[in-house]
Amino acid sequence: MSGQVHYRVEDRVAVLTIDNPPVNALSRPVRKALVDGVGRALADEVDAIVIMASGRTFPAGADIAEFGKPPEDPWLPEVCATVESSPKPVVAAIHGNALGGGLELALACHYRLASEEARVGLPEVTLGIVPGAGGTQRAPRLAGAAFALDLMIHGRSISADEAAEAGLLDGVVEGDLEGAALAFAESLEEEDLGPRPTCEATAGFADPSGYMAAVATRRKDLAASPLEAPKRVIDCVEAALLMPFDVGMAYERAAFDDLVSSGQSAALRHMFFAERRAPRFPGLEDVAPYKIGRVGVVGGGTMGTGIALALLNGGFEVRLLERDEGALEDAVARVVDGMEAGVRRGRLSAADRDRRLDRFSGALGYDDLSDCELAIEAVDEDIATKKAVFSTLDRVLAPGAIIATTTSYIDVDLLAAGTKRPANVIGLHFFSPAHVMRLIEIVVGAETAPDVVASALSLAKSLGKIPIRAEVSHGFVANRMLLAYRKAADELLEDGASVAEVDAAMRAFGFPLGPFQAADLAGLDISWEWRRRLAPTRDPGDRYVAIGDLLCEAGRYGQKNGRGYYLYRQGSRVGAEDPEVTRLIALERKRKNIAPRRFGPDEIARRCLLAMVNEGARLLEEGVAQRPSDIDVAMVHGFAFPRWIGGPMQWADREGLLMIREDLKKLVDEDPALWRPADLLSDLIKNGKTFDSLNR
Ligand code: T1G
Fold this sequence. Notes:
By secondary structure, the protein is α/β, with parallel strands linked by helices. The protein contains 28 helices and 19 strands. The strands form four sheets. The chain has an eight-stranded mixed sheet with strand order 12-11-10-13-14-15-16-17, with helices on both faces. The mean pLDDT is 96. (2S,3S)-3-hydroxy-2-methylbutanoyl-COA (T1G) is lined by residues 22-23, 25, 60-65, 76, 97, 99-101, 104, 123-124, 126-127, 129, 131-133, 135, 276.
């Protein structure tokens, strides 16, 4: 554990500067040094204390890496109490992101100034906990229940101006924050302004019935939510009004202690670090990426226009190529609409829109892309079409330019082999809608050069994406996981469960949609096309569920034509169970002599999870996926796997790998290809290890 606090005196003000890069997390050494620093200032010939931080930000919270370990004194609430009870006024000087414990420390100070670009927040619920150092008790005292609750239960950060308006800050500083803080501290003595403990503030309690109404409204709003922490925040904020400060603090601490050892918090903390670990691709530490400014996108369909929007939002110049005027017009219109939607939703200003569209142009000839540093093909998922695009791009682009494919399944090496620049070929697997979904799979071919991988990684960061690395394999990481999940769901259907039962079980587990609802949304014909292509190479010994094929042969393609696993009346997006589908499935069971049996929701969910975990283990064994947490990132950001469960691999660790393997063994006879436990499971069990041990 690292970190320190520098102490100096300016005129008659003691300045404590927190120094613990990269985000000045309030690690144990920092907490200790803060308490020591306040003590020293109280003994020193100074009239006031300023607490500030070096580097890029005021503390962005407690040190998350310390969670789950035995807490060490001084705890953050004690540090805050020391600051708050100081007989000399303490001023917080905030820059960067004062989040969680960082804002709580500032709230314990008597006065708070922030630089104009600073942001503050109490995002602890995003880690499955409540603020544990007085945030739920001090924030409502200053800003009232409604504001404090919205800040905490949504875990969002707010601007300094918004915080000042709400009463959380005393001032917003343009320019020299340190100078302003020192002058402010000195002025306190002159104006005979002393300490102003927040625990004694009552501005936020001015309207007790309004306060309780805000509590009641949010409690009602969250009643059905599976997330525990936001509900506990509401309880704590209610306690702030109803209980004396110290009792409220103890109440908050009890909630914190409960939650910090909960499965939800472990899962959410796992995701925090998993998302930050994912972009670390081995062997690229010293590899410089290409400079990419102009990107060509081939194909203006849903994926192509989504990618164009993501690139424009990411600051790139974009040329979108389509085969003819009509198609280009439609594609350009979709991009402009997408930008307009951003303005309508207040995500960007009209000026931003104009600046971005100034970097956008359409193209009708490949030669128009000749000066692009990168070209991304987003044409139909057909190998012949993609190969043709690749060879044309290979001819027109400059020798050093990169060619990327957005394929979801096709072998990237096959496409690379058709060019004279296999080292400059890479897979950039976006998820639809590409300008919204944060996940991107960077598919590294056998010959892809490290600086091309580094360039793809740098592009992903510029687009605000979370990149995971995948080696070439049918479906890479994310879709191979989806295929295993779908296979388990299909077999449940064939063995007796209904479409609605499977979907309800997975929604109860935490997915926003069940697998069959999601399939209807995506369109059944796309995956059907793939199954037909793969049919000749499918192992006849493997179990194959043909229900999906039968639906498509019956012209049922999902929401797009109003009939899929469900029936969608008059364009509704909510499907109704369709007796025709039930009949079709019953006939298929009869044809295969399958006597249907009942499956409870827990068994349904467990089978789907077991299939995901086992496939995840195989992806690790084969080296297709780098680490288990990448698989969790793929499932959470690619297929809405419930974040508060941490992804299938983290779920498996919590369930216990021995149990997982034993449960898989019980299912092997039903379909060995799906259920035969991956060897990696036995290796980890034998060595007393978990998937998490592979995340380092
Ligand atoms: N603890 C430990 N490490 C942290 C950290 C933290 N609080 N915040 C960031 N890091 C690491 C991160 O893992 C990464 O490491 C590096 O810093 C840069 O982060 C009592 C209990 C501040 C907005 O939830 O939201 O206080 O990968 O890549 O994009 O009530 O980090 O380089 O090795 O994210 O510029 C509450 C969490 C804690 C804020 C900066 N605080 N951090 O974003 O950089 S709970 C939070 C962030 C708490 C109290 C409770 C962001 C950021 P590495 P980064 P960034």
